[in-house]
Amino acid sequence: MAASFDPVREDLFTFGLWTVGNPGRDPFGDAVRPVQDPNHLVRKLAEIGAYGVNLHDNDLVPFGASASEQARIVGEFKKTLADTGMKVPMATTNLFTHPVFKDGAFTSNDPKVRAFALQKTMRAMDLGAELGAKIFVFWGGREGCEADACRDPRTAWQRMRESMDFLCGYAKDQDYGMRFALEAKPNEPRGDLYLPTTGHMLHFISTLEHHEMVGVNPEVAHEVMAGLSFAHNVAQAMACDKLFHIDLNGQKIGRYDQDLRFGSEDQKGAFLLVRLLEGTLGGKRYEGPRHFDAHAYRSEDEAGVWEFAKGCMRTYKILHARAKAFDQDAEVRQLIAEQKDAALDPLLAGGFSRQKADALKAASIDVDAAAKRGLGYERLDQLLVEHLLGVRS
Length: 393
Ligand code: GCO
Ligand code: MN
Ligand code: MN
Fold this sequence. Notes:
The strands form two sheets. The chain has an eight-stranded parallel sheet with strand order 8-6-4-3-2-1-10-9. It has a two-stranded antiparallel sheet with strand order 5-7. By secondary structure, it is α/β, with parallel strands linked by helices. It has two domains: 9-328, Divalent-metal-dependent TIM barrel enzymes (TIM Barrel, Alpha-Beta Barrel); 330-388, no CATH class. It contains 16 helices and ten strands. D-gluconic acid binds at residues 92, 137, 139, 141, 183, 185, 219, 247, 257, 293.
């Protein structure tokens, strides 16, 4: 029984080099683990059943490396990928660590910084393309402010648009076959970040020149920090065919970005998310990589890091099994069965017509009876809890 929760390649689990390679530095304390060689991380991930690995340009190639150094590093990394069969489905750019990005990258007031951000991103896209990445993530960690008066926020928004339009043009011109996934976050490291939620991103995307190649990369922690339902954000993205990638982790509400092991907090939220992604309720399933953007507690040594990584994948699979059982439960199905009304259903489907409007205005609807009816949601939610806690299957 336990073995069935062991991850396999087909599960499409991925980790960032920066996640399992996180040395545990925080604003108050130094690294607690040594920095690991990316090739070692890839071999270990392959061993524990992951499908692939994602990276920022500088997770692999140090900032400022010479062309020959880059060629050597990338050559060795490609060999490790080939030896292990590991994929790089997603790549991204580090536009936040170097001090030059202290007041933003694409939104900076300094044209030199904006030009450098575009240059660095195009090079990161070249690297991603060389490694086979078809998804390119944009997380605007420094695209925000503390001294809000420093720029018109509309200018920031406009600069983001121009940058995305330019980079879409670059990906197309190079024929990289890449799609972009934009990642929202409400704050941290800036006091306020522009484009703070997945909903903001979805609207922003609709204003882009090549909107068809741009979607979102929502992260559990980022919506939960803002007190929002992550599953609802993901559902909206899925409904618009815009869920191109996902960052899975765990988070307590109202805290700093904790990047905890997936499913270690808010198990009900995690259950509802996996239910949605896996389509156990019905509807389209998410087909992309299941990426964990999280890291091990600072208390851990390397062995703890691999326990953390296995835990993320295992919990995802356990939640998938629980969600399946919940949605196959006859009592659950009965409680959430779609209600039918032969007279009203045709009036509610297929949009507006004058006849339907007239018929709806004339319809006699027993409002009191509908208002009085108990919905059974206490029972439904208790069934969810019992499935989640493993006492019903
Ligand atoms: C964070 C972000 C990052 C991004 C990563 C990929 O809060 O630090 O989640 O981990 O996901 O930079 O773009
Ligand atoms: Mn993330
Ligand atoms: Mn994050």
